Amino acid sequence: MKSIEFDTSQIGLRAVVKEWQEKVLRVVWETSEGINSRRAYEKVNKVLVSESISRASVINFLEDMREMSVFRGEERTGKGGHHWVYFPALDESGFKRFIAEKLIVSLLKSFPEETKKAIRSI
Asked: Residue ranges per domain, the chain?
C-alpha cells in the first residue's frame, strides 16, 4: 500500500483504505502504550463481522503505515525473537491531512494548472 488510491465513490477513510485497514488504524490510534501485530490482528478480527483477515495482511499494512510515517515502530526482543510494537505517529486528523496533502501534490504534478484553478474555485 505504499501508494494511496482514492476511491471517489466512497467517503471518509473508506475512500483510501479498506474496512479492515480502517479498523487497524483505529486499533493503533486507540493504543497509547503501543501494539504488536499479533494483538492488532486479534483485535481487528474480533470486530470484523463478515470476514477475517490474515495476520500477514495486518503485518503488511502495519509495516506500510510505519514506512509512510503514519505509525512509528519500536523493535523489541521478546518471547520468540524480535517483533515490532506500533504507535501512532499521526492521529486521525493528522492522517486525513496527510492523505489530502498527498492527493493535492499528486494532482499538482499531473494537472498543475487545472488543479490550481479547481482549488481557487472551491
From this structure: 12-90
Residue with cell 465513490: 9
The CATH architecture of the domain made up of 12-90 is Orthogonal Bundle (1.10)
Burial 55-89 (b: 16+ CB within 10 A, else e): eebbbebbbbbbebebbebeeeeeeeeebbbbbbb
Nearest to 94 by CA among 115, 62, 71, 73: 71
Query: Coil, helix or strand for 107?
Result: helix
Give residue 78's pLDDT: 78
Query: Torsion angle, CA of 20/25/29/35, rounded to 10 degrees?
Result: 80
Q: Judge whether 103 and 51 are in contact, CB under 8 Å.
A: no
The Cα 22–Cα 96 span in angstroms is 12
Half-sphere exposure in the Cβ direction for 21 (13 Å, CA): 17
User: Mean pLDDT per 10-residue run, the chain (122 residues)?
Assistant: 85 95 96 93 89 94 96 88 93 97 95 96 94
The model's pTM is 0.88
